[in-house]
Amino acid sequence: REHGLDPEDLAKLASNENPLGPPPAAEEAVRDAAPEVNVYPTALHEDVRRKVAESLDAPPQNVVLGPGADGVFDTVGRAVLEDGDGVLTPEPGFSYYGMSARNLGGYESSYPLRDGDGFGYDAERIVDAYGGEKVVYITAPNNPTGTDTTLETIERVADSVDGLVFVDEAYWEFSDRQTAVPLALERDDVAVARTFSKAYGLAGLRVGYGVLPDELVSAYRKVVTPFCVGSVSLRAARAALGDDEHMSETVEIARWGRGYMAENLDAPTYDSAANFVLVDV
Question: Is a pLDDT exceeding 80 seen at residue 191?
Answer without folding.
Answer: yes
